[in-house]
Amino acid sequence: MVVVIDDGQGFTNFVTKENIIKSKEALKTVKKADAVILSNNIDENACEKIVKNLSSPCLAVGKSAAIVAKVFGAKSEGNIKNKRAIIIKAHSPITLGLKKRFVADGSVYKIKDMPEDFKIIANSRLGIEIYQHIQFPIFGVCFSAGTEIKTIVKNFLSFLGIWKKYH
């Protein structure tokens, strides 16, 4: 089962409501999950605990992507609302089907000093927009709005089928 941790209403368009749980209730469920999607609407302390206990693939979106990066040693700056061009620089299973350059609107959590064990997939003039861990199936997307998010979530769910087959 894919568990979506969302304290707001952000992911009801992407997955069934029964898969959505609140961040403060998530720690036990995450350990049994086939995969975890961390939404933009999440409690920071709960998110840090969840990330430290991950044992399955994870997609972090918006605020949670900044928290995941921080847990691994990156630094991040607050919430900046801005329209910006995002440029995909490297291949990733979650960016399949996206245009190499697209516009994202909405909040971004600026990530700085990404650890060496992360690959930067896409960036904008504001910094890192999409990243993935080199060794573990952990993906981060620093924006949380737009049709691209739907494609990224769909791609992540497709990736899980392949991941399960070989792991």
| Count of β-strands | 11
N- to C-terminal separation? 15 Å
Number of domains: 1
Strand content: 25-35%
Top-tier CATH class: Alpha Beta
User: Percent of residues in helical segments?
Assistant: 25-40%
What would the CATH topology be? Rossmann fold
- Looking at the overall shape, the CATH architecture is 3-Layer(aba) Sandwich
Main sheet overview = 9 strands, mixed
Short overview:
The chain has helices spanning 27-32, 44-52, 63-71, 147-166; strands at residues 2-5, 20-21, 35-38, 58-61, 75-81, 84-88, 101-104, 107-112, 118-124, 127-133, 138-141.
Which tags fit this structure?
globular, 32% strand, two-stranded antiparallel ribbon, alpha/beta, 26% helix, 167 residues
Please tell me about this protein's structure:
With 167 residues, the protein is an alpha/beta fold. The strands form two sheets. It has a nine-stranded mixed beta sheet with strand order 2-1-3-4-11-10-9-6-7, with helices on both faces. The protein has helices at residues 27-32, 44-52, 63-71, 147-166; strands at 2-5, 20-21, 35-38, 58-61, 75-81, 84-88, 101-104, 107-112, 118-124, 127-133, 138-141. The protein is built from four helices and eleven strands; from the N terminus they run E-E-H-E-H-E-H-E-E-E-E-E-E-E-H. The protein has a single domain (2-166), classed as Rossmann fold, CATH 3.40.50.880. The chain is globular. Helix 2 packs across helix 3. The mean pLDDT is 87. The two termini are 15 Å apart. Helices cover 26% and strands 32% of the residues. A hairpin with a 2-residue loop joins strand 9 (118-124) and strand 10 (127-133).
